[in-house]
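Hi R.,

As promised on Friday, here is the backbone we talked about, encoded as structure tokens. Could you run it through your design pipeline when you get a chance and send me back a sequence?
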């Protein structure tokens, strides 16, 4: 029986606050090469994570390939690349399963289908748990921010920088030295935000520009 390479497509997304998708894409290409897959195309998207899936042109390209049976496997860096919430991500996975297309999630080393193109129960179970935990974390962060902001106002404090206050480059880099250290290690903006106690994306990008 003639050996036929599996055809895969790489799908990478970053928010508009992040420079590019190079790191995600290169690591997924290495995985593709290591497993002797045939890479059909790489779809890269730079768009806000708050956008609905119906508003994402590059994701629509991926879905078109899936529905037209052009691909055997989809490779992503992490689950959040596929949607802004649990429902949207699971809808994409369900579409892939329906078309017998396996999804490989690099950061968790999970694959949705087995060699017989049947859903792997343990993988699907773990995916749902991971998505639920991520959703709970986002909700908790939002609630803490809203609570802190309201307390700030209730205490009679003003919002924004004090008039006339200007921090130097050195002061900012010293103030956010943990962010500087993580940026120098190549950690993503999203992960730095979590590791430093939810420092805002805007602040991290400001530090990154200063570097």
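Update: got your reply. Pasting your designed sequence below so it's all in one thread:
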């Amino acid at each position: 029986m003639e050996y036929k390479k599996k055809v895969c497509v790489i799908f990478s997304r970053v928010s508009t606050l992040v420079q590019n998708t190079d790191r995600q894409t290169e690591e997924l290409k290495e995985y593709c090469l290591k497993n002797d897959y045939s890479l059909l195309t790489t779809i890269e998207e730079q768009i806000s994570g708050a956008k609905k899936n119906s508003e994402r042109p590059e994701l629509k390209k991926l879905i078109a390939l899936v529905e037209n049976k052009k691909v055997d496997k989809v490779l992503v860096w992490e689950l959040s690349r596929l949607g802004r919430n649990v429902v949207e991500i699971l809808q994409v996975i369900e579409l892939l399963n329906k078309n017998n297309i396996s999804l490989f999630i690099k950061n968790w080393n999970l694959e949705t289908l087995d060699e017989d193109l049947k859903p792997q129960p343990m993988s699907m179970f773990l995916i749902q748990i991971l998505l639920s935990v991520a959703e709970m974390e986002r909700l908790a962060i939002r609630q803490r921010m809203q609570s802190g902001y309201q307390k700030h106002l209730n205490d009679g404090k003003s919002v924004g920088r004090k008039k006339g206050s200007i921090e130097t480059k050195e002061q900012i880099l010293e103030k956010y030295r943990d962010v500087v250290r993580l940026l120098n290690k190549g950690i993503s903006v999203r992960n730095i935000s979590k590791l430093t106690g939810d420092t805002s994306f805007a602040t991290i990008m400001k530090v990154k520009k200063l570097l």
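One thing I noticed while checking it: The helical segments are 22-34, 57-67, 86-98, 121-154, 169-175, 177-184, 189-195, 201-210.

Thanks again,
M.
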